[in-house]
Amino acid sequence: MTVNSVPPHREAGEAAEAACEVIELLELLWERGRDAVSSAPVSASQLRVLYILERDEGINLRTLASLLGSAPSSVSRLCDRLEAVGFVERAPSPVSRRELELLLTPPGRDYLRDLRAQREEVLVQVISAMPPSARKALVTGLTGFQAAAGFGPTAAQGGQSGGPAIRSA
Q1: Could you count the other beta carbons within 10 Å of the beta carbon of residue 87?
Q2: Can you give the pTM of this predicted structure?
């Protein structure tokens, strides 16, 4: 029988602190990647819209607002700005004459592709600078994170799938 010497409230606080550190580090890396693709920068909220439209092409404004947990009027303004830079277009829905579907344009797809490529480049640079033991610890930690989030290899074997598997190469 093992006894946990760390009180649960302290363990939760340490986990929250670690999560904040990870988020801040990733935001710095992402910003570095986004700076390289700054020809048409978008806000974090707009980027989230682009990711959703890439995944759920052709959804309507009401569905997008629901996915974002925002008011349709706010989401409409986000889409207006994305439409102005040429990343999103509204088109008549083939299902209902009363609705418009939201579509990612080729420049919007290109922006996401370039952003991902830049982010990958930044991550490869940082990971390459890490000693092998730290890289191994990172993979171990991310694999544990993936399993705890419910979409790791063990979750996939159980029939669940909530996202991409982390690859260790």
Answers
A1: 25
A2: 0.67
